[in-house]
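WARN no homologs supplied; continuing
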Amino acid sequence: MRSRFVHHSTQLLGLTSALAASFVFGQDAPPLEAALPEDSSRAGSPLLYFDMPVLIVDGSDQVSHSPVAPSVDPELDPAFDQRVDSINQYNSAVSAIELDGGAWDDGLVEELAALGRLQQEQGDHLAAVETLDRAIHVNRINAGLYTLEQIPVVEQLIQSHMALGDWEQADIYNNYLFHVQQKAFGYDDPRLIPGLERLATWHIQAFNVGYGELPGIRLRQSEIMFNAAARMVGVHFGKNDERFITYQQNIANSAYLVSRNQDLMLEIDRPEYRNMQQMLAEQLNEQRRIQAPGFRTGERALAEIVQVYSEKADEPYVLAEAITHLADWYLLFGQRRAALESYQLAWNVLQEQENAEVLTQRLFGEVVPLPSFASSIEIPEAYYKNEDGTDALNFDFADLTFDVTDRGVVRNIAIDTEESEANKLQLSKLRSMVRSTRFRPLIVDGVPQHSSQKHFRYRYWY
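OK structure emitted
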């Protein structure tokens, strides 16, 4: 068993080496097939988007009812009254310090930071913003503009701005936070890694909520920063560090988001913005000439994950899953031959295990909506709320039945949910959007198969 596993690893090394060669020679990336969803789905319909569907098995599914955390309810929160008492005590402490040392006494910072945290926990983010903003100003007056002591308070302040849906202030303070850390650490210090991760994550969140005038540039900067963070993790902590895998997944996610919209590709490729991107990459010591995120960027990131797991002989399922994600990527971009080879390779890895049948069923026993690779970045909760805390978006569910071809294409869609005048337009748009999505097909003996009558439940937003 061991020797045959090594044989598969050798195949993987050949695969990743070939990928590396194609990156060096700068081969043109294939265009994303028309089967991908288009961002124009927001136009002309109350239906905005839908979540990843969940397979219905025996009439049941695992769809949650809301991604939004419930508001703080004093009657349901046993610590609410205790926090009120603590807030009163901290307000008294702040007043006492001001009376003794003035409005800019250094001792105020710790008290204000603790008070702001309690206000956050109470759900009073407006008060928290005022308190934390003051703590930052007091700290800067006493310790300097770029002191590291302010970082935890700035992070708290960002949380409250995002909870309020104040994307402008969240953007300002995320960039400010990174600037403070970069001034303190430089661009090569591993202590900058959390700063790179935070700002890169924010850029993708800002894209998801539609904030800013240059969405493509945000995604490009996110990819550059995640790439720099991954490289630094690899150098200082090793590629087995779980952050390395997470960052590669987020790089692929950025590349996928850009690829969905050719207008973003054109935006990124404008000379003035391309030069700006190259300068950022050089500041972060990225040696290679940057390319617009797209097919090659995602391929490289997912292949890096395969490479990491191929060196671990004790995690065959995780390795097979990583190869499968790469195969899914090829399928998304119409690279059928590469997809077939990778699916077969992943299948072969699992066949060497004692519980091969169970593992194979887990990975390949059902069709899977694409993209399949995980991303740790979620849309901020405030996106679903109005300023007064009421729901800004509505959601509903719809059950669909359709076939999935061996190329992952959706065919013969039937809507099982009862149609009414209230949801007629939404269901029609949903059908159109689902038709343009891709699935990992059923895999048997390493070969994609056509499958019929697959039942999925969709949650859609409008």
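The beta strands are 49-50, 54-55, 368-369, 395-404, 410-415, 439-440, 442-444, 447-449, 451-461.
OK
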